[in-house]
C-alpha cells in the first residue's frame, strides 16, 4: 500500500493526523501532485488547523489553477481565520470555476459557504454595534447623573426639592425606551412564506416546481414521493417525478434574499 492509499484509509477511519502524515510522505515523493495538497488540506480542515489548510490550498492552486476543491478550501480557511474579505473573493472565484459543467456538483457547497460567510459578517457587525450601543448608553447614563447632581445642588439652594429626582427618572425612562426601540429594530425579520417549503416550512435552498405549480425543497419532495406516493403534497394531484423541474426563478429570489438578510441563513 502506497502513502496516498494509506492517507485515504486513515481519513476514512477518522484518523486525520495519521492521514495528514501519510499525505506529507506522499508529497515528499511527488511534490507536483496538486491532489495530495488538497487531500492533506482536508485532513487539516477536520483538525481545524486553518493556517495549514490555507497553505496547502494555495499550493494546490499553484499546481492546478482550476481546482474547485482547492479554491473552496482556500475560502473556508480564510473564513475560519476571520479574513472575510479574502474569503468572499475566494468563494466568488470558486463559483466561477464551478460554472464549468464538470464541477457543477460543487456549486451548492460553495453557495452555502458564501451564505455562511454573509451570516458571520452580519453577526460580527451586530456584535460590534451592540457593544457600541452599550458604551453609548453608559455615557448617557453618566450625563443624566451629572445633570441630576447639578439640579439637586440648585434645589438645595432654592429649597424646592423633588424636581431633580423626577427629571432623572424621566430621562432614564426615555433612555430605556430609546434602547428598547433600537433593540427591536435589530430583531430578526420573518422569512417570506413564498420562500419556504410547504413540507418543511423552512427556507428553501434547492426549490423545485411540480406540474401543479407548487414549489418545494427538492430533498423534502423527494422523500415525500418516496414514502407517501406520487402525488402533490398540497394539491394532491398525481406527479410524475420526471416532470419535477428546478425553480430557477425562486432560487434567484432566495439568493437575493439571503444576501440582503444574512441572519436568515441556517433558519
From TrEMBL:
<dbReference type="InterPro" id="IPR045202">
    <property type="entry name" value="CHIP_RING-Ubox"/>
</dbReference>
<keyword id="KW-0175">Coiled coil</keyword>
<dbReference type="GO" id="GO:0006515">
    <property type="term" value="P:protein quality control for misfolded or incompletely synthesized proteins"/>
</dbReference>
<dbReference type="InterPro" id="IPR011990">
    <property type="entry name" value="TPR-like_helical_dom_sf"/>
</dbReference>
<dbReference type="GO" id="GO:0005737">
    <property type="term" value="C:cytoplasm"/>
</dbReference>
<dbReference type="InterPro" id="IPR019734">
    <property type="entry name" value="TPR_rpt"/>
</dbReference>
<feature type="repeat" description="TPR">
    <location>
        <begin position="5"/>
        <end position="33"/>
    </location>
</feature>
<dbReference type="Pfam" id="PF13414">
    <property type="entry name" value="TPR_11"/>
</dbReference>
<dbReference type="Pfam" id="PF13181">
    <property type="entry name" value="TPR_8"/>
</dbReference>
<keyword id="KW-0808">Transferase</keyword>
<dbReference type="GO" id="GO:0071218">
    <property type="term" value="P:cellular response to misfolded protein"/>
</dbReference>
<keyword id="KW-0677">Repeat</keyword>
<dbReference type="InterPro" id="IPR003613">
    <property type="entry name" value="Ubox_domain"/>
</dbReference>
<dbReference type="GO" id="GO:0061630">
    <property type="term" value="F:ubiquitin protein ligase activity"/>
</dbReference>
<dbReference type="Pfam" id="PF04564">
    <property type="entry name" value="U-box"/>
</dbReference>
<dbReference type="GO" id="GO:0051087">
    <property type="term" value="F:protein-folding chaperone binding"/>
</dbReference>
<keyword id="KW-0833">Ubl conjugation pathway</keyword>
<dbReference type="GO" id="GO:0043161">
    <property type="term" value="P:proteasome-mediated ubiquitin-dependent protein catabolic process"/>
</dbReference>
<dbReference type="GO" id="GO:0045862">
    <property type="term" value="P:positive regulation of proteolysis"/>
</dbReference>
<feature type="domain" description="U-box">
    <location>
        <begin position="190"/>
        <end position="264"/>
    </location>
</feature>
<feature type="coiled-coil region">
    <location>
        <begin position="140"/>
        <end position="188"/>
    </location>
</feature>
<protein>
    <recommendedName>
        <fullName>E3 ubiquitin-protein ligase CHIP</fullName>
        <ecNumber>2.3.2.27</ecNumber>
    </recommendedName>
</protein>
<dbReference type="InterPro" id="IPR013083">
    <property type="entry name" value="Znf_RING/FYVE/PHD"/>
</dbReference>
<keyword id="KW-0802">TPR repeat</keyword>
<dbReference type="GO" id="GO:0000209">
    <property type="term" value="P:protein polyubiquitination"/>
</dbReference>
